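Ligand: beta-D-glucopyranose. Inputs:
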Amino acid sequence: MSSHQVEGNNILNDWWAWEHKGKVLNRQISGDACNHYYLYKRDFEMMKNMHHNAHRLSIEWSRIEPNEGEFNKEELRHYRKVIQELVNLGITPIVTLHHFTLPYWFAKKGGFLQVDARKIFERYIRRVVSELGDLVKYWITINEPYVYANFGYLEGKWPPGEKNIFKLIRVLRALFYIHLDSYKTIKEIYKRNHWGSSHVGFAKHLIWFDESSNKTLIDKILVTIYRYTFNKSFYRAFYSGRLPFVLGWKKVPEARQCLDFIGINYYFRCICKFSLLKGFQVSHREPDRERTLSDWEVYPEGLYNVCKLIGRKIKKPIIITENGISTLDDNQRISFIIRHLEAIHRAIGEGVDIRGYLYWSFIDNFEWAEGYTQPFGIVGMNHRTFERIPKSSSQVFSEICKTGKITDNMIKKHAKNIRERLLREN
Ligand code: BGC
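Predicted complex:
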């Protein structure tokens, strides 16, 4: 989960301002969201009963530093209580430091484009990690740098609503350095406090790109370009010590030592096509394929592919930091989960080091520019009473978490289409 999507009343960040300008679908606002800020204990208890052994959450920077340089001790105490609660329940917290939202004051000054951005972010994380580090082993510095930069600075669908490719590139470069800074700061704080080991990474959205069935040479080239620019380029410095061409081709040898795990967020595949009539097209699906409520193609094979692609390049453990489906049909969700876990299982069998899987999301929540129209949760919610309503998928997922197994029965019932292949292979 991420703070703004579930907590409610994050009134001091750029998204709150954006929503109140009517920029979200149906002019919705996040409002009370899932009221998780107050109901976190109940939610964690549910997770515990569902046998979850890890939970990803994010810290809301605008609560911690509501005005520039002023830190709110009470909010820091709040997050300490939240994380302590998880630890007490035996659920490993995986904590994100930046998940799309910015304090309004920081956004107004230019966000990550301002000259002091790195210094300011460093001050924030220094404070957070010093206060919470003794309870946390896993840190995610940034969530989805490309998605953040693309929607905010190229497509203009998210704050600050810009459409400027040069700014997009500058933001990406800033985020890259922010990750390096954060990595070093976290390590230094852990060392100074004798807190033992920490695992620091970032979560990157990966898409599997393919040619359409009647492919041409141009389509093939297009696919190669997309696989490189979207999936691999941001990782380049972490295995080669040099930034990719688009980000400046600069040598950054220290980057090789600044990643402990690879966080992969995977949702769908895209098809690349060039035609004289329509030009370059990157669409979300092949016609007639299974898709989600958000019109994304369901393509478990893509998760297997991206894990192999990145796992081969960077020899670090992988955690699937997000994978999920927005749908009104919970049977489709169950099938989605089983098929994606099977894809992971296959990749592990072929030597890819995948250590964990976090379903997105625990509860239906505020889906950014789409407002409350995209139910990703294994738990639903009554928006008036905030009552949590577990879906059948939460039971199946719970069974898998408890036993670490997908049974033949589950496959027969929910994922028939992979059964034949599995029988053949075994
Ligand atoms: C984001 C989440 C979002 C999810 C589903 C990811 O891009 O990290 O915040 O809810 O996808 O769209």
